[in-house]
Every structure is written in structure tokens, then in C-alpha cells.
Design goal:
Elements (H helix, E strand, L loop, with lengths): L4 E7 L3 H14 L4 E8 L5 H9 L4 E5 L4 H12 L4 E5 L3 E3 L4 H9 L4 E10 L6 E3 L29 E3 L6 E5 L3 H4 L11 H11 L3 E12 L10 H18 L3 H25 L6 H16 L2
Parallel strand pairs: 1-2, 1-4, 2-3, 6-10
Antiparallel strand pairs: 4-9, 5-10, 6-7, 8-10
Helix pairs in contact: 7-8, 7-9, 8-9
Length: 297
């Protein structure tokens, strides 16, 4: 029986990007796949209608409410019939076949639970965005993408285990979800794929980077760099991530203290000095909401 990949993407007020991604996938991919697009509470129905009318061969689902990155993808999972699930941001571009390469890497080792391709910026295809990821610091709750902003000159062409997948493009086996669960929807935006990877690892799986498959990504096209939305959810979700994934009580307390009494005040002063006053309110609210979340658990 032939295997199939369910490609799941979430559209939020980004129909032009979604169409461009769909066209690139149709142009370059030959491995058996179905495409599932979740319109995640976009401001109007125009994008949803456009996608339904323009691409009758794909599954387009409308959610009247924006359920966030995890919630949108979890809706897509409900409609998937493939042996593998490939979560692909709608602001990505495919320039060569990648699905078979990712499937083969997953199939090479049952202990691989999730795999991400090499990701470059788009249209600056020579600049890397993701070539694996470093482990998370339990104090700062930050990590880095390996190779970020470096030239794609062959130095990052070795497939290997890594700390985290890239939420913009990651593949799992459908059957493995029962072992580590769906994405946590209360994050809404940011840290949900890091949390998911942590739970995969707790379930005994490893995360892999596959440079043989390449995806271009228009970074933060949907929310913008240093937007109020980004500041709020990064601040809030770092505290939630610590509560959920740090099993050592000492490490968890250290992380809480650092985020609350070092990182938040530092960012507050930075925004104040740089005149970014629109970021102060979401920063403070993110800290308050993160503390409230962990206090209620």
C-alpha cells in the first residue's frame, strides 16, 4: 500500500502567501500527498472562498475563531488521512521535492519522532534560517537556530539529531500522536512546537534535522518582528513553557525568578529607552498572564 503525507497549513489573513505556497508545492512535489488548509478565523471570508474556488482538489476548512498556531494545526489533524503529517507554514516556498526525503529519514529510525528540513530565508535563498537548534537554557528559556543568518555554503549539510524542530516545517508520523499528544493550544502563538518537541522527547523520541530537504520561509510575515503580539506571547509563554517542561523544581524556580525579575525589567527599560512605548503594555500583560497561568496549575 502506498504511503501518503498529509500537508497541513494554517491561513490567517494571508491568502496571497497561501496561494504562493500551494503553487510551489504543486509545481515541485511528486510524492503522494493531500493538502489541508485551515482558514483560522481570518477577518473576512474572501480568502477562504478564494482558496475553495481556486483549488477544488484540496481540503479547505474554515474556523470562525482564530485558534492560534496549535489550534489551527490540530483542526487539520482531524481531517488528515495520511501516514505522515507535514506541518508547513503558509508563508513558505518549495523549490524542489522534499516529502520523500523527509519520509525516508523518519522511516530510517523508529526513534525519530519529528524531522525538519533545512530552512532558508525567502527570497534570500542563500541565507539560512534553520539548520537544527541548540538546547534550551532552563534559566533564560531561549535557544538558537543553528546557522541562523549564515551563508548556506555546505557547512550545515549533515543530517543529525537536534534539540528542536522548526515550527515552520516539521513532519511526524500520524500514529505517533497517541504517544505524545496533540499540540498544546493554550500557547496560542510561539513555544507550542518547542513544548511539543519536549513532550516527544519525554516519550522517548528524538528530533532530527534533514538538510537534503530545503524550504524557503518569509520569516514572521503574519505577525511582524517585534510586534505587540510577538512581545506579549513570548513573555507569557516562556513562563508557561518553564512550568510544563522543567521537571526539576530548582531549575523551574530559577527560571521563574529570572523571567520575572531580570528579563522582564530589562526589556521594559530597553523599550522605554528606545521609545518603543507600544511594546510596554503587552510586555507587562504577558508577564502578568504568564504568572497567573502557572499559579493556577
Amino acid at each position: 500500500m502506498d504511503k501518503k503525507v498529509s500537508v497541513i497549513t494554517v491561513n490567517y489573513n494571508g491568502a496571497p502567501d497561501t496561494c504562493e505556497m500551494i503553487e510551489s508545492l504543486k509545481r515541485h512535489e511528486s510524492y503522494p500527498y493531500e493538502l489541508i488548509v485551515v482558514d483560522n478565523g481570518s477577518a473576512n471570508l474572501e480568502g477562504y472562498t478564494l482558496l475553495k474556488d481556486k483549488y477544488p482538489d484540496i481540503i479547505v476548512i474554515r474556523s470562525d475563531q482564530n485558534l492560534g498556531f496549535a489550534g489551527g494545526n490540530n483542526i487539520g489533524i482531524q481531517y488528515a488521512t495520511g501516514d505522515y503529517l507535514f506541518f508547513l507554514n503558509n508563508d513558505t516556498i518549495i523549490t524542489c521535492p522534499i516529502l520523500e526525503i523527509l519520509v525516508n529519514r523518519l522511516d530510517s529510525n523508529r526513534k525519530i519522532g519529528c524531522i525538519s528540513p533545512k530552512t532558508t530565508f525567502w527570497p534570500q535563498r542563500s541565507k539560512l534560517q534553520y539548520a537544527g537548534a541548540t538546547p534550551m537554557s532552563y534559566i533564560t528559556l531561549r535557544n538558537e537556530f543553528t546557522g541562523y543568518m549564515q551563508e548556506d555554503d555546505g557547512r550545515f549539510d549533515t543530517p543529525q539529531e537536534t534539540a528542536f524542530a522548526n515550527g515552520a516545517a516539521m513532519m511526524i508520523r500520524t500514529a505517533d500522536i497517541q504517544k505524545f499528544g496533540l499540540m498544546a493550544e493554550f500557547y496560542f502563538l510561539y513555544y507550542e512546537e518547542l513544548d511539543w518537541c519536549a513532550y516527544m522527547q519525554k516519550a522517548g523520541f528524538s528530533i532530527w534535522y534533514e538538510p537534503g530537504a530545503i524550504v524557503g520561509h518569509k520569516e514572521s510575515a503574519s505577525v511582524g518582528l517585534q510586534s505587540p503580539l510577538q512581545v506579549y506571547y513570548h513573555t507569557r509563554n516562556r513562563l508557561i513553557f518553564a512550568q510544563r517542561t522543567l521537571s526539576d523544581p530548582f531549575e523551574r524556580r530559577c527560571s521563574y525568578l529570572y523571567q520575572t525579575f531580570v528579563a522582564l525589567p530589562k526589556r521594559f527599560l530597553t523599550y522605554l529607552c528606545k521609545g518603543k512605548l507600544n511594546l510596554i503594555a503587552p510586555l507587562v500583560k504577558g508577564g502578568k498572564d504568564g504568572i497567573a497561568f502557572i499559579m493556577n496549575k
